[in-house]
Model the fold of this input.
Amino acid sequence: MFLKILNFLFLSLFPISEVMAETKPQRFVSLYLLNKLSAKKHRIEVPLGAAYIIQDMRIVPRSCEKLYDDLYKINSHVAHVEIFMEQDCGEDKDHPGYHQPILLYKGDLSNNTRIPSAPVEHPVYDLILVHCD
Done:
């Protein structure tokens, strides 16, 4: 009897919809970041909508979807990303050390070579989409 009352009180204080909303998994985009100067690559995982900053580059994945190619029987991933470069605007009296973000790339990245996507034009880094979670 005591457990039923305790269960009733718990469910009335914390509705199931709120508990389920808190445990909703966050989606990630997994990318390889290739340094052209050192020829080293490392894998990064960025949550959708969040920014990953490396040196002067900010990577923001907006959406990601999984596609299935019936002809070749392979899974593909396509991510819509925005990439900004932080440009130093010099020492302004009103905004010392002010950085102006410049949109470097806005488009789709794919891990399938059969899906056309424009390359990211950055002098130091190449981005390669691995997959979406």
Q: What stands out?
A: The mean pLDDT is 80. Strands lie at 28-35, 40-47, 52-54, 57-69, 74-88, 99-110, 125-132. The radius of gyration is 22 Å. Residues 61 and 81 are 4 Å apart (CA to CA).
